[in-house]
Amino acid sequence: MGAEPDECVPERPVRRRRVDWREWAPLTLLTLAVLVGVGLWLGGLRPAAQLVWAAVTLVALVPAAWATLRQLWRRQFGVDVIAVLALVGTLLVREYLAGAVIAVMVGTGQALEGYAERRASRDLRALLERAPRQARRRTPGGGIEVVPLDRVAVGDRLVVGPGDVVPVDGTVEEAATLDESVVTGESRLVTRAAGERVASGVVNAGAGFGLRAAKNAAESTYAGIVRLAEEATAHRAPMVRLADRYAAAFVPFTLVLAGVAWLLSGEFLRAVAVLVVATPCPLLLATPIAIVSGLSRVARRGVLVREGGSLELLGRARTLLMDKTGTLTAGRPVASETVVAPGGDRDEVLRLAASVEQLSPHVLATALVRQARERGLRLTEPTDVTEEPGRGVTGRVDGRLVRVGQLEGEPPEWAHRLRERAELTGRSSVWVSDDVGPLGAILLEDPVRPDARRTVRRLREAGLQRLIMVTGDRPRTAQEVARTVGVDDVIAQCSPQAKIDRVRDESRRAITVMVGDGVNDAPALAQAHVGVAMGATGATASADVADAVLTVDRLDRLADAVEIARYARRIAVQSAVVGMALAVVAMVFAAIGRLPPVAGAFLQEGIDVLVILNALRALRGGLRRRDVAPRTRELIDRYAGEHAGVRDVLARLRDTADLVATRPDAPDCVPALREVHRRLADEVLPHEAAEGRRLYPALAGPLGSDEATATMSREHVEISRLVDRIGGHLAQQADGRLRPDDVPDLLSALYGLDAVLRLHLAKEEEDFFSLDPADGPPR
């Protein structure tokens, strides 16, 4: 076994795109030219003003006409055709000011739309950079040579060093400890015995090992993942602008009305007036502004959406697929429980294991060292440390030989039961032994994110109707996480190709969002209508192919993004519909000769101002979650930090309950009971009472009412009652020994308190502490 240094990996910085003012230069120049024309007109130089306005109209017409012709050539039909016809009409009837005003409106719409849909590069650079390009190959003479990956042939004997990526699919020649999360999504490290197959792309998390190539590089697993991502990205259909959906009905209506006005009146000017007021600026302006406002808001919430079309689709999504590891769970193992041999000391076992693991490069050791330091244990520098690949680490701590890793030999009965229990709960076991035998085991798990269950509920409230978890994990582990967070369906042992197929199937039924954080998720993210990468901890490849990136390591920000996207889209549609309704009324007046082109252009500007002001409402509102006051955040932070101490008391409580259940006559039974009762009374009860007095009232605002914490306050009463019940039993033990007839009721109180308190802590962390909008998961 081994460990990394007990430090957090720095977050990968998000590359922010600098504003290129050249992209706004055309609009700026058009506006300045129109203002220059106004100045010339007011100065009495009317012919010069008309010439300037005509030039502005012509400058806007040429690119707009070219873009419209290209759309028609590709059999795409949009509302831009009306703007082109209006520009042409104003030139024909010499209404140059009206044409210039339309030119500014069109330029504004294009600039805003370009800003909204301008996206970062979606190449697969990170995926390709991570792909191995060389391999270490054994030579016939016993040496090792570095060769290009394409020269590796089936049957070659390779060497995979510590931390290396396995270059090709093959068979390990000795035991190897691997991180397979890149390919399978499985969060737990696995040990492959000699002769077992391994896939390319997995990471060697232990000592170096030999590998016999079973496939060449082009046919190996990791190369297939790269091809899947490229194929899925290449076949993504282009997004259709919201404005173009109205073109099918609005454009024919406008042309018919303009033609009828011209035919009945015999005045071409009326047809031009109709086209001028029909220019779809409420669509070209209000829609991008609402979407850009949504993009800005979700960015402030830590969600970087790369284009307006993706935000619009996010607002219409009905199905969400989520990877488990790193998305619904923390994505890194933590020490969840330390179990010791009968009569053993939990802290001493954890201290011995963490002391040995300080010098180990194994990733699981990080969890052990972190757990020991959090509990304030004094770690000793080990000596004579050796590592056996696939078996563990051995060293001396304070002169005592300690082995951390696999359990060797025939296990005692308690160890056999613990092994079955770990397998049943889907947790990894790290055994701690000395010369005599096993001292205990540390159970490791990938915990569910505290905010996962609340986020799932909020996603449903935001309109997502079907939530599916896809993972490469085992069915038992996957089902347990699925039940905890409350998703509709779960797909376990899911390969990258299976994820692609499932996302494709769901996408045929409804707008689908896929969330993941690993390289193995990249193809599925690219296939979904909206791919969302957990960018704070996820692989760069996933972030590169995704349409949105969570730049903070919190899943609840996705729920914020969905709510904001739905609100922004609703405002955009509302602005477009109201604006177009007003435009239709103006078109009727223009058709009957009551609205000349210049007046129509300025009236259209007034309509634009109205719908733009409405579109700016997307900058605020739409979120169901209430903001948390700074003082409340401090309280959340404080009481969340105290949970570590409460959980330490819980561990002692469970040990004591087990002692009473198995050895009630032991001389250390009653002293252990008294000690755990003292800690419950001195540490846990004051903590719960302080929460009830200070934290719960402060949460009434963010949660909506005082009733939201009522059940938690009732649990406080039950916790206090059970502690008093244990104390009552202790008061009757004058001789320091438990009476047999008291044991059943005492066990009921001990195990009942253990269950109630664990559930209570979990509910607080999921429902209350996850309200803290800090950039990391709540402590």
TrEMBL record:
Its EC number is 3.6.3.3. Residues 131-230 form the P-type ATPase A domain. Pfam families: E1-E2_ATPase, Hemerythrin, Hydrolase. GO terms for molecular function: ATP binding; ATP hydrolysis activity; ATPase-coupled monoatomic cation transmembrane transporter activity; cadmium ion transmembrane transporter activity; metal ion binding. Its main location: membrane. GO terms for cellular component: plasma membrane. InterPro entries: ATPase_P-typ_cyto_dom_N (IPR023299), ATPase_P-typ_P_site (IPR018303), ATPase_P-typ_TM_dom_sf (IPR023298), ATPase_P-typ_transduc_dom_A_sf (IPR008250), ATPase_P-type_domA (IPR059000), Cation_Transport_ATPase_IB (IPR051014), HAD-like_sf (IPR036412), HAD_sf (IPR023214). PROSITE patterns: ATPASE_E1_E2 (PS00154). Residues 636-770 form the Hemerythrin-like domain. Keywords: ATP-binding, Cell membrane, Hydrolase, Membrane, Metal-binding, Nucleotide-binding, Transmembrane, Transmembrane helix. It is found in: Cell membrane. The chain crosses the membrane at residues 24-42, 48-69, 76-93, 99-116, 246-265, 271-292, 571-592. It is a multi-pass membrane protein. PANTHER family: CADMIUM/ZINC-TRANSPORTING ATPASE HMA2-RELATED, CADMIUM_ZINC-TRANSPORTING ATPASE HMA4-RELATED. This is Cadmium-translocating P-type ATPase.
